[in-house]
Amino acid sequence: MELSTVEREEIKNILRERFEANMHRHKNLSWKTIESRLNEDPDKLNTLFQMEETGGEPDVVGFALDGENISFVDCSAESPKSRRSYCYDHAALESRKKHKPVNSALTVANEMGVELLDEIQYRQLQELGNFDSKTSSWLKTPNEIRELGGALFGDFRYNHVFIYHNGAESYYAARGFRGILVL
Question: Name one Pfam family in it (predicted).
């Protein structure tokens, strides 16, 4: 998808405003640095536009900084609304005989150009605020769990981050996924 000049400026303004309003998520970074990276790779801006359009409210997070890369993560209070009611992956979708969901979390994430948060990233995100207090988010699942038919998800309840498991083919109206995009 190719963004128009107006859409490009619009998404950059949204990201800048969110960045400046949430400096606790990315201390010691300037918007100028972020904007420079975005200008270098316009495809990443397209992905951020999709993250925003599906309700993710992407923002730069400090926990994913490694000195070279900058990461945007979905920071919406609840799992992005337009990314809910998906099973975990395509294999899980194909295994369902009845009442199939529209798609799978991994398929949609791949189409958007993001990866699902893993358990460590999800716990680090929760240190920046309370996320998924009414919803839950599929998490990148280790192969040894997925090969046995399971998948991980997380949420925040009772002032605690919980990581659970479900059959990968399950899906719920309140479960979506959060993505991470590395620049």
Answer: DUF4256
